[in-house]
Amino acid sequence: MIETHQPGIVATSTLTCPDCGHASLETMPEESCQYFFACAACGNRLAPKPGDCCVYCSYGSVPCPPIQRERTAAP
Q: Sorting pLDDT into bands at 50, 70 and 90, what band is 75?
């Protein structure tokens, strides 16, 4: 697990392809959401599920940094 320059914010997430089950450890962008990701195993183009902001929030082991910050700031 890699933390960002902000304490408590995790910078890596394991993305799991819903089609083939391939998992890959990826470094997430700190200040933006990633809308698409190509699976290295099957080539499937992942896109966020309805209601999610990015592929990390839909298929990752850890939500994206903007959502982590939002959840940390919530009372």
A: low
Neighbours of 32 (CB within 10 A): 12
Q: Is pLDDT of 40 > 50? A: yes
Per DSSP, what are the bridge partners of residue 69? none
Buried b (16+ CB within 10 A) or exposed e, 35-49: eebebeeeeeebebe
Q: What per-residue confidence (pLDDT) applies to 8?
A: 83
> Is 59 strand, coil or helix?
helix
Radius of gyration of the chain (CA): 12
26 assigned to some structural domain: yes
pLDDT at residue number 15: 98
Domain hosting 22: range is 12-68
How many domains in the chain? 1
